[in-house]
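Quick one: co-fold with zinc ion.
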Amino acid sequence: MTTLVHTLGYPRIGAQRELKRAVESYWKGESDAAALEREGARLRHAHWQAQRDAGLDMVTVGDFAFYDQVLNVSTLLGAIPPRFGRVEGEVDFDTSFRMARGRAPSGEPAAACEMTKYFDTNYHYLVPELHAGQTFRLASQRLFDEVAEAQAAGHPVKVALTGPVTWLWLGKAKSEGLDRLSLLDALVATYGEILARLADAGVTWVQLDEPALVQDLPSDWQRAFESAYHALQSAPVKLLVASYFGALGDNLGLALGLPVAGLHIDLARAPGQLPAVLDRLPPDKLLSLGAVDGRNIWRADLRQLATALADAKARLDGRLWVAPSCSLLHVPVDLDNETQLDPELKGWLAFARQKLDEVVTLAHLLDGRETDADRARIDSAAHALKARRESRRIHQAAVRDRLAAIGQADTQRHNVYASRAVAQRERLNLPLFPTTTIGSFPQTQSIRSVRRDFKRGDLTASDYEARMREEIAQVVARQASLGLDVPVHGEAERNDMVEYFGEQLDGFAFTENGWVQSYGSRCVKPPVIFGDVTRPEAMTVRWSEYAQSLTDKPMKGMLTGPVTLLQWSFVRDDQPRATTCRQIALALRDEVADLEQAGIAIIQIDEPALREGLPLRQAEWQTYLDWAVECFQLSAAVVRDETQIHTHMCYAEFNDIIGAIAAMDADVITIETSRSDMELLDAFQDFDYPNEIGPGVYDIHSPNIPDQAWIVDLMVKAAEKLPAERLWVNPDCGLKTRGWAEVEPALANMVDAARVLRRRYA
Ligand code: GLN
Ligand code: ZN
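Sure, here it is.
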């Protein structure tokens, strides 16, 4: 019997981000709904054709969305929050766009649904809102139309949808005291209707994505899996339950026992679970192996994979499917569009299109029916990967040696915070409630065009340098007249906080078209960390040094932290993440030392991604936090007592990681708190957090200008929780997305508020 090949999903954005352009043009009213529908259909056809051309046995329908696939399921289920109006029949386009964005070309605006990261990916989904007594109904034809579309094109179809338990798990209770599971039966009944409709349409296979199965599930949620799938057992289709992003772990028995036709497991993240799954797989169930990494961009070693799966093939034969580990949504579309990448590096990579070829060849290899094309692919992969293992561009002895020599002393400041604080007070001479900002100032059109012209070669390096200095001089002057205590240079030279550093570090590479959907029409182009990381030369020192030369106030230098650089990149798979992170930390350590040497007395190391790096299983949290904290420390702990280290994080949900935050031992942490009325500071109060904190008092995500009294009020609340002499006054985050017209009065109010506070707490 032959091994069947499929994919859990394919990127929908298009190789040139066509979907982004089509959707945004519709939002702006530059094109109509029909044009958007046409472009959607064109992309779906192209993606199905790519799957067929590669040799997949079925195409996946249901992975397409104009905004988000979880939102699509919510609209399919008629789960429309009441503020978007009563929708009787078909949920239209604009209603779902309003749910996503708060507005759409037609209809009244309303508060958008919350958006959050999908498990541990950088993809954001729209959080389903759940209300007591909520009902569900089949409220959209879209999925069925897409099925018909694929069938009309002659494709064998497998439908993919978020499964009912994961959909609820991702949802948020909006009624006081609501147990989300109380909605399960009603929800599953509607899933039953959907499955029946799909069966009527001639669909045989439906993949229900249940990545919640790789998380720690409370026992009532485990039971929910049993009851949901028991109820769906009578559905006239075959169900494939898809787990991904990790091992099933303690949910293995649960997953294997569900009364469904097949189970998909992730072998990229959790190869070790295969033997147990094989031993315990019921004889009537098929197994889909997620063998090719759907979360990363490395080319697979097909021969090695085939060897690892040979036992599965022998034992399962016709009950074996192969696929990428998860939907290919999380990787860029097509490596063939990279024309600038170094050919050697390019040979080590595979994007979504290439991963389709990889799974097909893998299946052929398992079945012993390789074609000439397969053989060529296997050989070229083996060749490229051997070269990768040995490449001098990856392995640098100096980096290894330096890492090996790192000891405890390198990750600890010389003295504890209390004595550092004395030295810093003496050197910096700051008032009570010092004011500062997070680093970036508005990125005006002129800043962007200067950067772009320089990148294109239309501006010489010295002209660029001069223009940036002008910009720095302006922001320093503005901060002086505002009266900010700790100014910054404004980060005008940075397009993106990861790209800016990645471009200057060895071991990082950048693609031209390696876009991945982040949310809605927003795509990101993560750098590729392919080799040992080093810093050929100082990255930020000249800007900070120049800015410092313009003022007597202590200029703060800003760096992106090691964990954030790691977290927002594609990371090499040939060594542990922790090792790569330590290498980045060492490169940053040199930058920190150089900044200190240049006379910069305050250095901020941003770690907005620290929390999102938490593993999906709680048992693995401590290990992660240990090395993440160690890496931060490795970057920071090179300075003398009187140099002040800041960190910044764009959230304040610290309850479960406050110990790690304290262990980072930054002298000052600035966080996002303005919208929560300082309630989020409770974690710091309960923990008795020992160092200084700047709770954000200006919500930079909103164009509103906070007034002085409101800021005072927030800070008074903060001072009830934490000692006033350890509080700073600052915005929630960087100001680069705002305009000066709002920023200037907002900061003026902030500085005034600090003056009021100083009088009050003197
Ligand atoms: N220093 C960065 C800025 O101000 C921090 C951005 C962030 O935390 N996301 O833009
Ligand atoms: Zn931030």
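If it helps, The pocket of glutamine (ligand 1) is lined by residues 438-440, 491, 497, 558, 606, 608, 648, 650, 733-734, 736 (CB under 6 Å).
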